[in-house]
Amino acid sequence: MKIGMVGLGKMGANMTERLLAGGHQVVAFDLSAEPRQAAAALGAEPAASLEELASKLSPPRAAWVMVPAGEPTDTTIDELGRLFAAGDVIVDGGNSNYKEAAPTAARLAERGVGFVDAGTSGGVWGLKEGYCLMVGGTQEAVAVVEPALRTLAPDDGYAHVGPVGAGHFVKMVHNGIEYGLMQAYAEGFEILKAAEEYSLDVHEIASIWRYGSVVRSWLLELIERATRPEAGIDQIAPVIVDSGEGRWTALEAIDRAVPAPVITAALFNRFSSRDRDSFANKLVAAMRNQFGGHAVTLESGGQGLETKTPVGE
Questions:
Q1: Side-chain half-sphere of 237: how many Cα atoms within 13 Å?
Q2: Which of 82, 132, 221, 307 is most buried (most C-beta within 10 Å)?
Q3: How far apart, in whole angstroms, are the C-alpha atoms of residue 67 and residue 76?
Q4: Mean of pLDDT over the chain
Q5: Stated pTM of the model
Q6: How far is CA 251 from the centre of its chain?
Q7: How far is CA 254 from CA 83, 97, 166, 243, 263, in A?
Q8: pLDDT in tens, 129-176
Q9: Alpha-carbon dihedral of residues 170, 175, 177, 179, nearest 10 degrees?
C-alpha cells in the first residue's frame, strides 16, 4: 500500500525503512529537510508539507502520525483532517492519552475521515525486530491500514484490541507495567551491588540470568549491555524521566479502584530520583536509553550512552 509517514524522528524514520523493506510505498514528511532527504535516500517519496503529502497519496489515503504527543500531534492531525476526505484514515502512533482519541475521532468523522489509535512499542529496536502494535478503531478504518500494520509488526505482534481509544489505553497500561518491571530489576541489582563482602560482578550475573532463569527477558538483556565495563553506566546520573504513561496508569488504577502498588511505587521512585544517588536509578535510566533512545542525564564530564529521544518508550 501507499502510506504517508508524518514525523521522521528515530521511530518514524525506522518505521519508514521497515515499510519500504516490506514493499510499501511511503510518502515521508518532516519539518526538517535532513530527515526527509534521508528517507528519500532509502526510497521514500519526500514531501515538503502536509499539503504535498496529501496530494501524493491515492484514495483511500492513509497517513501515520509519529510526532510528540500533545499539541504537536493534535495540530498535525487536525491539519491532515482538513486535507483528507471521506474514506481516508489517519493513524496516531505516538504516546497520546487514550482519553483524547474519541474527541479526535469525532472531529475527523465530521469529514468522513477515519481515525486509528495505534499503541506502538519497540523503540529503536523496532526496525529489526518489529513493533508490537495495539490498535483501536473501527473495523473499516483499521482495514485500510492493516497491510502496513502487518508489515510493521513481527508475527503475532499486532492486534486490533477494540474501538477508538483502546489502542492507546492498552499501550498506557503496557508502559505502566514496564515501569514496575524495570524498577524490580534495578532494585535487585542494587542489592547485589551493595553486597560488598562478595565483590559480585553484576554484569556477569546479568549475563547468566539470560539463560534458563525464570527472570530472563529482553529488559535483562539490556541490563547486560548497560553493565558491560565499556558501557559507561557510571557516567549516567541517577535521574529517571517519567514521560506520562506511568502517571496515567496510576490515575486509572485509582479511578477504577484497582490496587497497583508496584506500578505506583515505580512512578514515585522516578519522582524521587531527582534527589537521590542510586545505582538502581542509573540502571533504569540506562535501560530506557537503550530500548527507546530516551535521553539520559550525564554526570559532570561524562560521555554516557546515546541520548537521542524518539517519540515513545
A1: 17
A2: 132
A3: 8
A4: 92
A5: 0.89
A6: 20
A7: 40, 16, 19, 19, 12
A8: 999 999 999 999 999 999 999 999 999 999 999 999 999 999 999 999
A9: -170
Closest by Cα among 183, 178, 146, 171 to 69: 171
- Grid cell at residue 4: 504517508
Inter-residue contact 119 to 133 (CB < 8 Å) = yes
Sheet containing 114-121: which strands, arranged edge to edge? Answer: 45-47, 25-29, 2-6, 62-65, 89-92, 114-121, 132-136, 158-162
The pair phi, psi for residue 65, each rounded to 5°, is -95, 120
CA gyration radius, the chain: 20
Q: Which three cell numbers stand for residue 283?
A: 540502571
The 8-class DSSP code of residue 236 comes to B
Instruction: Concatenate the DSSP letters of all residues of 125-190 into one string.
Output: GHHHH--EEEEES-HHHHHHHHHHHHHHSPTT-EEEEESTTHHHHHHHHHHHHHHHHHHHHHHHHH
Residues annotated catalytic, as ranges: 171, 178
